[in-house]
Amino acid sequence: MNRPDLSPEQLDAFRQELDQLRADTLADLGETDARYIRRVRAAVQGSAIAGRGLLMFGVGPVSWIAGIAALAHAKILENMELGHNILHGQYDWMNDPSLHSRTYSWDMACAPENWRKAHNIEHHNHTNILGKDEDYGYGMFRLDPKQRWKPSYLIQPLSYLMLAANFQWGIAIQDLKLGRWLKGRVSTRRMRVLAKPFLKKAGSQVFKDYVLFPALAFWQFPRVLLGNLIANGIRNVWTNAVIFCGHFTADAQLFTIRETRDECRGGWYLRQILGSSNLEGGRWFHMLTGNLSHQIEHHLFPDMPARRYAEIAPKVRAICEKYGVHYNTGGFWKQYGSVMWRILRHAFPSKRQAAPAA
């Protein structure tokens, strides 16, 4: 897709309209938003109790499958609509320690402090900038001709399947930047310090899912252990698919450091829109994605409660149309299919020479 050639005056007007939309929406936050997030938390707790109960005390394959489904549902909803959004500070205004970004601990292996740095700060500020946004390709995938091709990319379709099945672990170690340690750029002593939050959080998560709950089931130990493993796998595959659809679809654009060197606030907004992709669906679909199905709105306003994205999406789209900015949206299978095609296509060399990152 071509990028709109907006004048400085147009970019500033574009920025003002989006700023006003954000201000109006945040000014309207209140008890309705607080009740919503508490209801989601109650739904997560109920689904988790039902799932673990069916796994621990159920008999036969039907209760086992139902238990896995309920537990996977709880984990997906907790990670996407609770954890991700709370850790963005979307509900800090409530002054509820159990829903505050600095005190919330989600049901996955990634340490919240590692995630806030790698995701909130680095990814959201440098979205889709080659050489600065480590979420673009996660250091494993080539998704655009601007990225220089290496023989190791030939196995990226297989690498993708492995990452999808173990996605919580990929997220958990991302901020450690293990590649720098392996290349000798970070000392082992420093890596031990950096790894402490990860080891603590990952250790407690492994103990809970694969030791504590299976042990509490006594003779049902294998049933619960395998059920927890499958529920985590379902959560991993779903969250991976949603997140990859956010920035790697056919129309999601990649930027170089040179292109963004003198970027103004309006240009930042523009990059967030052009580098992001939305997914179309109903209310329950949006909830299970943590409203990352509204990735464009999320990247414009990451600290806005995600339940508001569906409300403001038509207004954002209208602003984009007014200024000739492409608003990338489509059904899940269309968008995810284009992601899979990019992973497959760019595993091989391109005819076009890769551009330098800076």
Secondary structure layout:
Elements (H helix, E strand, L loop, with lengths): L7 H20 L3 H27 L3 H27 L24 H14 L30 H10 L1 H8 L3 H5 L5 H29 L4 H27 L17 H10 L3 E3 L2 H6 L6 H6 L8 H14 L6 E3 H14 L13
Overall morphology: globular
Binned, the helix content reads 55-70%
Strand sequence of the main sheet, in spatial order?
1-2
- Seen as an oligomer or otherwise, the chain set is single chain
Give the tally of β-strands. 2
Arithmetic mean of pLDDT? 94
Q: Which class of secondary structure composition applies to the elements?
A: mainly alpha
* Biggest sheet details: 2 strands, parallel
Short description:
The protein has 358 residues and is an all-alpha fold. The protein has helices at 8-27, 31-57, 61-87, 112-125, 156-165, 167-174, 178-182, 188-216, 221-247, 265-274, 283-288, 295-300, 309-322, 332-345, and strands spanning 278-280, 329-331. It has a two-stranded parallel sheet with strand order 1-2.
